[in-house]
Design a protein that fits this description.
With 384 residues, the protein is of the alpha+beta class. It is built from eleven helices and 19 strands. The protein binds flavin-adenine dinucleotide and 3,4-dihydroxybenzoic acid. 3,4-dihydroxybenzoic acid binds next to strand 14.
């Protein structure tokens, strides 16, 4: 079997790449280890930055997002027992949309299937060969070994996939001495916008998914077992750190996420292109992961179209450097938000005062607040 672009991974990166390529008349096959049901239910990101929202609309994926997503014009930073609103609309003229990653994934899968797209779920033992000249992806499906010959491979298989290990490169890495315990609860949000709280007991985040569902996070020690946190303890700790009443409800999901910054350079080796979490991850503070994955594949789709249709290699040659400029901006922003908002276990009094000074400056200076706002709502694609 042969295709133009073999895509490994049906997360936001792989699925959107397949959609963008199809719009330009380029064939692709998406290979995914998990089932369709699993990827559609996997609870992860929730914030779409402005350029992501615009792109999804532009490529025919905006209908349900516009009907069900929650547009927000700001967020609050909470510290020293007070909330301080950062007004994105006033500072940048733009905003964000709160719409779950699994909803984006559902919309993408529906669009690809309606268009005759070739998505293969539940493949195993996937291996990449010949990535410098004649790429082949082999994998097992329904008990049979299959081979997919491709012009190029897009490695969109996340941080634990096979693509990032298929070639050597340079890795930049930071681990943080804490994790996030995230819950999704059947409870009406009482706040209209997100609240990022810096508290002596640790960071907390108030978010939501719909008028009926609240999404909340607590800083916890790394390697925490989510089962050791009872529901009652979670609600008490959230109320304390967020300094507000919260509607309680039954938990739909409870899990712990590690925090890490990691970049793999370069993002291309021969005919293998990495995109999204396969190439880089950010700590979740600032909500950049999925948005970066989407920015990568927008560039990749255009580069592959010029290459596969016209033999023009300019775009594919520039792919890695072009993406890495935005990647490092988001790496800095996520590291900065993480550093400003969390309680570092080894923090001394000097660091604590520096952190508080940064928070006070960010909410009181228009220049500093604008810097947070323009990064949060997302710099226009191609601006950096
Ligand atoms: P993934 O979504 O990881 O998709 C990779 C796919 O490849 C998966 O479906 C996987 O099953 C498949 N795969 C892996 N290995 C193989 C293999 N060997 N063979 C075949 N398939 C394979 N980002 C934001 O922008 N905003 C947020 O608000 C935000 N909040 C977050 C909150 C949490 C708790 C977490 C965990 C993440 C958050 N993120 C956020 C990050 C975001 O979820 C990721 O950056 C995003 O999923 C990256 O998309 P991707 O398509 O690159 O990778
Ligand atoms: C959400 C996740 C984030 O990492 C973030 O910074 C904001 C919101 C969320 O899941 O809603």
């Amino acid at each position: 079997m042969r295709t133009q672009v073999g895509i490994v991974g049906a997360g936001p990166a792989g699925l959107l790449l397949s959609h963008l390529l199809a719009r330009q008349g380029i064939e692709s096959v998406v290979l995914e280890a998990r089932s369709r049901e699993y990827v559609q239910q996997r609870v992860r990101a929730g914030v779409l930055e402005h350029p992501t929202v615009e792109l999804l609309r532009e490529v025919g994926l905006g209908a349900r997002m516009d009907a069900e997503g929650l547009p927000h014009a700001g967020v609050s930073l909470r510290f020293e027992d007070a909330d301080h609103r950062i007004d994105f609309a006033a500072l940048t003229g733009r905003g964000i949309v709160v719409y779950g990653q699994q909803e984006v994934v559902k919309d993408l899968i529906a669009a690809r299937l309606a268009d005759g797209g070739d998505l293969r779920f539940e493949v195993s033992d996937l291996a990449l060969d010949g990535v410098t000249d004649d790429p082949v992806i082999s994998y097992t499906r329904n008990g049979q070994r299959e081979e997919l010959h491709c012009d190029v491979i897009a490695g969109c298989d996340g941080f634990h996939g096979v693509s990032r290990g298929a070639f050597s490169g340079e890795t930049f890495d930071r681990k943080y001495p804490f994790a996030w315990l995230g819950i999704l609860a059947e409870a009406a949000p009482i706040q209209d916008e997100l609240v990022y709280a810096n508290h002596a007991n640790g960071f907390a985040l108030y978010s939501m998914r719909s008028p009926e569902v609240t999404r909340l996070y607590l800083q916890v020690p790394p390697d925490t077992d989510a089962g050791t946190w009872s529901d009652a303890r979670i609600w008490d700790e959230l109320r304390l750190r967020l300094g507000t009443e919260i509607n309680e409800g039954s938990l739909i999901e409870k899990s712990v996420t590690g925090m890490r910054s990691n970049v793999r350079e370069p993002m291309r080796h021969g005919k293998l292109f990495l995109a999204g979490d396969a190439a880089h991850i950010v700590p979740p503070t600032g909500a950049k992961g999925m948005n970066l994955a989407i920015a990568d594949v927008r560039i990749l789709a255009d580069a592959l179209e010029s290459y596969l249709r016209k033999g023009d290699e300019t775009g594919i040659d520039g792919y890695s450097d072009t993406c890495l400029r935005r990647v490092w901006r988001a790496e800095h922003f996520s590291w900065w938000m993480t550093s400003m908002l969390h309680n570092f276990p080894d923090e001394d009094a000097f660091q604590r005062r520096i952190q508080l000074s940064q928070l006070r400056y960010t909410v009181s200076s228009t220049a500093a607040a604008t810097s947070l706002a323009e990064n949060y709502v997302g710099l226009p694609h191609g601006a950096i």
